[in-house]
Each structure stands twice: as structure tokens, then as C-alpha cells.
């Protein structure tokens, strides 16, 4: 039976309209918020015999009701078997990422009043292995993140001799260079929205690559070359096509696409300098 699940919407087109769809004034919201909404939840158990389908739940809503609130109401009062991952309910842990009306969002950060229509469709994030219902497997995502060595490398950081204490000063300007990228909560929305991740599982994704720039821009770190060697390969930073979807869906206002482009610019300059040094060495050896 064809349930239309294989007819995937174009996520890039929907993401491009995200800003326009979310601009709803307060007065209009007061007039259009329904007393109840129809919640369509993707259901599949992750086993071969569990066919994919949508279950429908009628949920009462108020002005402040979030999509997560609606899902938890359906789970508490209508079907306790709904699979969903959540924790902080304040857009800090990044656990409740899912596709809401076709766009990757945090369920706890998305109010019903921000969405057009009285039907809300919830689906698991794309580009992640599916486990059950709205729950996906983040193992590969975190593997890419760990491969970038997301911590400060500094040979003087460990205090081996208390008589030689070190202090690492940073000016406000130094902090501003990497601050926005340090706000990442690893929710995976950018990873889900990335068209390159969808076609290349070895591609680290915008989250991991932007974290490389975060530590490159940090004046306390001294492992620039080690990280560049990790991403400077055919499945690395050069696979980014700069679609920009990652930056649009980020709930914390981070711009992963900017970080990737800034890192690319540095690497281009770095490679030119290396080429000049190599040419100079050749000339000296010839002389």
C-alpha cells in the first residue's frame, strides 16, 4: 500500500521558506490559534515487519503550547508507545530534534502558534539511521564530532610544575571570533538539513567542520595543523557545496556555513604559502 512516505518533500525548498513562514504577528496569532490541532506522528518500530505509517492524534493547545508539549500529551493520554527523545525542554540539550512540517526543528523550541495550519506533522530527522518512531541514531554524528578533536590542545595547559603556572589571556575581540560556534548544542539539525551528508556518509557534516573553525579561531589552541590534516581530504571540507541550509535551521543562531567558509579561506591561504615555500626551497636547492 502506497502511503506516500517515499515521496520525499524537498527539504531545501522548505528550509528556504522558513523565515517567511515564521513571521506571524501576535495579533494574527490570537485570531488563528485553534483550540485543538491534528498531530500526525511517524510510526515505525525499526524492524522489517513494522511498516511505516502515520498515527493521528487530536490534541488541545494553548498559545504557549510547544510541539513537544503536544507530543507528550498524546503520549500520556492517547498512546504511551510513542517513541520520542527529549530531556531539558528548554533548547539546551538538543535531544528533541525532529522534522516538523518538513523542516528540522527542536520540538521544545517550536510553538504551535508559529506553525501555519491546524495539522502538525512530526517525522524523524533525515540523514540519521532510524531506530523507532521519532528516535534516530546519533552514533555516526558523534563519531564525526569526536574525530575533530573538539578540545583545546596546548602543551602548557597541564600544570606539571606548580612553580611554573601559566595564564592564557584573551581579549574580548579574541573571544568574539569563536564565541558563536561554542554555543553548539549538538542537536543534529544542521546535519539533517545538509544535502552533502545525504549523499556522502563519510562527510563530517556542518557541525563537526564548524567546530574545527571554532578551535582554529581560539588563540589558546596550538593544534591547527593536526585538525586541518583531518578535514583536508576528498570527503572533508571541500565536499561542502555551501547550500546554507545548516545555518537556516540552527536553533542557537550559529552559522556553520560561515565557519566552514572562513576555514576554507584560511586553508586556501595556507596552501598558497606552502607552495611559495616549496618553490623557494627548490630554487635554493638548484643554486
Walk me through this protein's architecture.
- With 287 residues, the chain is α+β, with helices and mostly antiparallel strands.
- Helix content is 37%, strand content 12%.
- It has twelve helices and seven strands.
- It has helices at 11-16, 18-21, 26-32, 67-77, 139-147, 172-176, 189-193, 195-199, 206-216, 224-231, 245-249, 256-286, and strands spanning 36-43, 53-60, 97-100, 103-106, 119-123, 130-132, 135-136.
- The strands form two sheets. Strands 2-1-5-3-4 form a five-stranded mixed β-sheet. Strands 6-7 form a two-stranded antiparallel ribbon.
- β3 (97-100) and β4 (103-106) form a beta hairpin.
- α5 runs parallel beside α9 (206-216), α9 packs antiparallel against α10 (224-231) and α9 crosses α12 (256-286).
- It is elongated, with a radius of gyration of 23 Å.
- The termini are far apart.
- The model is unreliable at 1-8 and 20-31 (pLDDT under 50).
Summarize the structure.
This protein folds into 2 domains: 5-136, Roll (Ubiquitin-like (UB roll)), CATH 3.10.20.30; 139-268, Fumarate Reductase Iron-sulfur Protein, Chain B, domain 2 (Orthogonal Bundle). It contains 12 helices and 7 strands.
Beta-strand percentage range: 5-15%
Radius of gyration: 23 Å
CATH fold assignment of the largest domain: Ubiquitin-like (UB roll)
What best-fitting shape do the alpha-carbon axes yield?
Answer: elongated
Q: What's the β-strand tally? A: 7
According to CATH, the homologous superfamily of the largest domain is: Beta-grasp domain
Q: End-to-end span in angstroms?
A: 77 Å
- What's the average pLDDT? 85
Q: Numbering strands along the chain, what is their spatial order in the largest sheet?
A: 2-1-5-3-4
Spans of at least 5 consecutive residues whose pLDDT stays below 50 are 1-8, 20-31
Coarse structural class: alpha+beta
